[in-house]
Amino acid sequence: MTQSQAYPIGTPGQKWGDAERLEWRATTSIKREYQQEVVPKIKALKSEFVVEQYGALSYDEQRYPLFSIKSKNWQANKPTVLITGGVHGYETSGVHGALKFMATEAQHYQQHFNIVAAPCVSPWGYETINRWNPNAIDPNRSFYADSPAEESANLMALVANLPLEVLVHIDLHETTDTDETEFRPALAARDGIEYEADSIPDGFYTVGDSALPQLEFQAAVIESVAKVTHIAPADANGQIIGSNVVQRGVILYPMKKLGLCGGVTNCQYGTTTEVYPDSPTVSDEECNDAQVAAIKGALDYVVRHHYA
């Protein structure tokens, strides 16, 4: 399959310019409301946590303020946990899973950790159900100096201003059927390359950092999530989305090299979760619960081993 067959914008073999990016943006529309579905859940946590605005997107600063949720009693003798969701705004359980963890489980873990969550890094993407921002830039390939993505730059500034180094970072994502039907074909068209069809894994998996895999830690996340939803099997090539499966439900990426959110800190323990929301056997709430289970599995492991 070629990009010309797969995507209607652009000229095969040529990277998009400003005209194509504007043409793509014109195809987007608001499908759900950040201010109605997400912001009230964030503000509802004000009695238990410090809710702060750490930025706003220039596309519409009133519509798209960016919020963090932090432990009230920050203590220097406790390690810091960063939870990020909605870096890809269309990945719904990343947003609502982060919020559900903060509402239901975070208080328990504050005895061990300082916790900071950025539950919806890309609210424009959340509203338009998109992987990219309005400039056809992927925030999750833009975590580097002088980032072209406001979403990434704002989060990097938040992390840089934390009073302590981050020990644990859990970045909540989904792999959806639309990755294959829309977002990967669009990426190939944007970059002027041929689109090669792939398959979508049926189930949950994690992406660790190839520079610091922490495979026992990844296994603990998988074990916790397996109690909630099914784990993605390897394909016939022993891979998930083109990467070798190094153990059950785990692949590895070079986080910093690729500009991924998973590389935004120098954490000792990091994982990127990938929930599969399009399975006919799961519900939206099960997807949220899988994200909560992933965070719990990660933090329980660190409690057992970091404090041992």
What this model shows, in words?
With 308 residues, the chain is of the alpha/beta class. The chain has helices at 3-6, 18-26, 34-37, 39-43, 92-104, 106-109, 123-128, 150-160, 177-191, 215-225, 284-306; strands at 50-56, 65-70, 80-85, 114-118, 166-174, 205-209, 239-240, 243-244, 250-253, 269-275. It has a single domain, classed as 3-Layer(aba) Sandwich (Aminopeptidase), CATH 3.40.630. The chain has an eight-stranded mixed beta sheet with strand order 1-2-4-3-5-10-6-9, sandwiched between helices. A hairpin with a 2-residue loop joins β7 and β8. The chain starts with a helix and ends with a helix. The mean pLDDT is 96. It comes from Vibrio ziniensis. Its cofactor is Zn(2+). Keywords: Carboxypeptidase, Hydrolase, Metal-binding, Protease, Zinc. InterPro entries: AstE_AspA_cat, Peptidase_M14.
How do the helices and strands line up, and which of them pair or pack?
Layout: H1 3-6, H2 18-26, H3 34-37, H4 39-43, E1 50-56, E2 65-70, E3 80-85, H5 92-104, H6 106-109, E4 114-118, H7 123-128, H8 150-160, E5 166-174, H9 177-191, E6 205-209, H10 215-225, E7 239-240, E8 243-244, E9 250-253, E10 269-275, H11 284-306
Parallel strand pairs: 3-4, 3-5, 5-10, 6-9
Antiparallel strand pairs: 1-2, 2-4, 6-10, 7-8
Helix pairs in contact: 5-11, 10-11
GO molecular function: hydrolase activity, acting on ester bonds; metallocarboxypeptidase activity; zinc ion binding
Keywords: Carboxypeptidase, Hydrolase, Metal-binding, Protease, Zinc
Protein name: M14 family metallocarboxypeptidase
